[in-house]
Write a structure and sequence with these properties.
Layout (H helix, E strand, L loop, with lengths): L1 H11 L1 H6 L9 H12 L15 E3 L3 E5 L4 H6 L12 E7 H8 L15
Parallel strand pairs: 1-3
Antiparallel strand pairs: 2-3
Amino acid sequence: GDEKMRQCMFKVFEGPLAQLKPDPRLDDIVLINERLAEAQRPLGDAADRFTFIPAAVGAADGKLKLGQVNAAQMIRGGAHSSTDGSDQVEVHKVDVVQWIERSFSDSDFIFLKMDVEG
C-alpha cells in the first residue's frame, strides 16, 4: 500500500524533484539569528506571524552533518544525521530550549511548530 503509493509519487515527481537543490543563502548564521530575533518580538497589531528558521535543532548551538539529503528522501521521512558521505550537507543547529528560555518569560504565550527529524 504505502510503498506502492510512494513509488508512484517518485515516478510522477521524478523530474521536479531532481531539480530541487539546497539553497546556500539559507545557510547563513546572520540570517538565522535575524529570524530568531524576529520570532521573539511581540506581535503588536499583527494578527499572527510565521517565522521560518532555516536550522536544525539540538542540545547545543553549532553545526550538524546530515546525510541522505535529497528530495526523494524528504518524501520518505527526512534527512539522517549520517556521515556515510551520501548526499551530505552541514547545517547550522540551534539549541531551541536555551533560545526559548532566553527569549520569553513565564507570562508569554508562544506557539511553536517544528518539523524535527530523528
